[in-house]
Please model this.
Amino acid sequence: MSAGSNVAAPPRELGDLAASRSDWAALAAVAVIVGVVPLVVDPHWYDRYYWPKVELFYAATALGAVALLWRGRTDWLGRLRSPVGYALLAWLAALTVSTLASIDPATSLVGDDYRYEGLVTWLAYGVAAAVTGAALVTAARVRAVIAVALGGAVVMSVLALLQYWGARPVALDFERAGSLRVFGTVGNPIALGAYLVLLLPIAVSLYAAEERPEWCQLWGAVVVLLYAGLLASLARGAWAALPVGLAAWTAALGPRTLRAAARPLAVLVLCCAAVTPVVLLTGPVSGQLDPAAVANSLHGRMFLWETSGTLVGQRPVFGWGPETLAQIYPAYGTPAFYAVYPYARMMNLIVDRPHNDLLQQAIATGLVGLAAYLWLWGALLRTGWRTARGGAAPWTRTLAAGLLGGLAAYFVQLQLAFSYVSVAPVLWVLIGVLLALDRGRAGAGLAG
Model:
């Protein structure tokens, strides 16, 4: 062997090394999106809580896609050849047409300030789901990504509880400095509720299926902590959505598994029951849950639905364009508007979301876009159910049931709120996890 052969690795070994590194880069990108993006805050930027997350989400998504393409892999696009993928492509196509036909195409493309959910972000959501589905080729990787997601949720819950009990672990801006409600690092109490209710059924499912005592205790602690954070958020829409998500999880898991886990689940229920008064009767916001505040909140939402709903009939096919409601909301300055929002006489109150996700999509993308959007959610829930009931391995069925419960709960709370860019990246990674599990159920398999 010549001296030169000692310094030059065979081309195949170099190729294998590059492939391995690109795979790990894609996996790292997914982990950053699901575990780090929700926690990022930049105290030096005027938008401390949303724009830094968007920047990191775009960068991580691009890294994951480039890493797979660099390896020569385009099979991640094949993750879109599924019921979920076809529905997603239809939704993105409708969103693209609505953006082109928008009354403000530039805003519809990049999104409004502090929101950023224009066409570019929705395309990034789809890419993130596809990259996740392609990167999670082994059961170990799936478990690692779920662990990162739940680890991030634990950190979020701790931060939220510290805020709830008077500490200030997160830099506050002017708008939030006087607020008594907590938001973790996602910028809004409603977003905090959406984030935790999305992940709670997954943690419950892992707890119920765990056979090792020490791991069962760990998952139980995670569930109780996330539940306490959800209570502290005072996000009543998320509270109402949690039983729906748990009901979907129960139905998907099946009676045999539930009977086997009856005792640990009873212990979990008792722990959560004990935590409830501890959280709700302490903290600076414990007195805000009065009936008048609840009624006023519901009245405000009904007013928004009624006044913004008229916009759908004015442009029913492809809508007004994403992110344009702030410009076209018809009730600004009316006596009824001031009656519901009297403080609007003293400040510039902008209505850019109707606090109902389906209505928002109908306004933005018309009835065509709404149909594609409903198709997407139907495909997601059906895929979750199918994988939970027919997964090849018990852990696949367990995780799929938890994903189904989280998706169902998230969808329900959306009907009293809307998508936040600080939370939605986690949703789309979990959709990619579901695509990976569904691929395993269909026979492609996940390596052990």
